[in-house]
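Quick start: what a row looks like.
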Amino acid sequence: MTRLPIHVFFETDNWYCEEVARFADGEVYLACLPTLEKIALENGFAFVTESDRGDEEATPC
């Protein structure tokens, strides 16, 4: 089974988003999540979202 990367996005309240990171390991992603949330807020984004789907489906915006 192939493990897909976790794509991380910063999003605004009006559905605008930017992909900001990719993680190959869920534990590393979870360890980084508090810092990612802080950076998102400091840059005007409302929240952090993630996707572990393939590249063709990874961008929700």
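That is the whole record. The two ends are 27 Å apart (CA to CA). The mean pLDDT is 88.
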